[in-house]
Amino acid sequence: xxxxxxxxxxxRSMPPRKPFNVYFALRPDExxxxxASRTAMQxxxxxxxxxxxxxxxxxxxxxxxxxxxxxxxxxxxxDGLAAAACVQMAPFKLTFRRALSFRQGKxxxxxxxxxxxxxxxxxxxxxxxxxxxxxxxxxxxxxxEPHMTLLYDYRRVPETILPEPITWTxxxxxLINSLVGKGVHEDIEEWPLLG
Length: 195
Fold this sequence. Notes:
Elements: E1 20-26, H1 30-46, E2 61-69, H2 74-85, E3 92-102, E4 108-113, H3 117-133, E5 147-152, E6 160-170, E7 172-179, E8 184-192
Helix pairs in contact: 2-3
């Protein structure tokens, strides 16, 4: 279904990067996404950051990572689709009130989830358990902090309260294929939260 996109051969000094990165995620609605993009620009200016914010379309909250491949295995895709179909959760409100830098390599400036945090963790757990029941070896982070990355920059930003919270009602989740190094996120499938 997904095959390696055409491009140059990576240099010998660096291991080749696998082009397809597949994961479940939440996406902000249009209004919240626009507000998050404006917030990224405001924080960038306020703290003298140099890197550009993530594109509006790339904003998301990661839920569960399936893997990174040269070519997505059809069996993994089938298991991911089947796992998502087992999720039972009602729509919920998700609110971000704080921004700060996460330290993991090049620090990421993120929005941290406040209201709705437990629901995000529950959704992650449901997906992970469903995948494990299908024999998929999924990496579960015990201290997952639901967040939305705005940009990456070596300058760190202390915890900052947003002038206005960013909030929306989560009504669905998606399986995303991120084309590594290209800044392109393709939706493989989307599922509504029906309760």
